[in-house]
UniProtKB/TrEMBL annotation:
SUPFAM superfamilies, alphabetized: Glutaminase/Asparaginase (SSF53774)
Record bears the keyword Transmembrane: yes
Protein name from the UniProt record: L-asparaginase
Keywords in alphabetical order: Membrane, Transmembrane, Transmembrane helix
InterPro entries referenced in this protein's UniProt entry, alphabetically: Asp/glu_Ase-like_sf, Asparaginase/glutaminase-like, L-asparaginase_N, L-asparaginase_N_sf
L-asparaginase N-terminal domain ranges (all copies): 2-151
One Pfam family it belongs to: Asparaginase
PROSITE patterns recorded: ASN_GLN_ASE_3 (PS51732)
Positions that bind substrate: S52, T81, D82
Sequence intervals crossing the membrane: 116-138
One annotated GO molecular function: asparaginase activity
């Protein structure tokens, strides 16, 4: 069984035309998994609905406590990309024998040209194949926590030293 925690981020953003802005909506994760023919073997729990730029250290502690308190060996977390690396780093002390994978999207899942479906499927596979540890799985690449950064200019993640 895989535990999935959602925290918001671009992957769950909804565009509201009336006020011309994006807001975090209900997660589409079960729908995204169903599109990939994954219908069981997971539980979803929503921890928050925040843009990752708004995630505070106390929010991060809530994520760490939720992961540390769950009984599953495999944990998938959807998270906004701007502070994903910081949250991955915070999760390292509670990894133990768990495999923890964070993923998200550069474009909302509700948009036609989103990387969300690919990233969720890729993260699902990575979660099942990787050894215990904390990882970020984005756009066909896997990075260890503490060895990754988001390149804002290129809009992608890359290894850091």
């Amino acid at each position: 069984m895989i535990q999935i925690f959602t925290t918001g981020g671009t992957i769950d953003k909804v565009y509201f035309d009336a006020n011309s802005q994006f807001e975090i909506g209900d997660t589409l994760l079960p729908e995204l998994l169903a599109e990939s023919n994954v219908h069981e073997g997971y539980e979803v729990a929503g921890l928050m609905r925040k843009d990752s730029l708004e995630i505070t250290d106390s929010d991060r502690e809530l994520i760490v406590q939720a992961v540390g308190g769950c009984n599953h060996e495999r944990v998938l977390i959807t998270h906004g990309t701007d502070s994903m690396a910081k949250t991955a780093e915070a999760l390292k002390p509670v990894a133990g024998e768990r495999t923890i994978v964070l993923t998200g999207a550069m474009q909302p899942a509700r948009m036609r040209r989103s990387d969300a479906v690919f990233n969720v499927g890729f993260a699902w596979a990575a979660l099942k194949l990787l050894p215990a540890g904390v990882y970020i799985a984005m756009n066909g690449e896997v990075f260890e926590a503490g060895k990754v950064r988001k390149n804002l200019g290129a809009q992608r993640f890359e290894a850091s030293s």
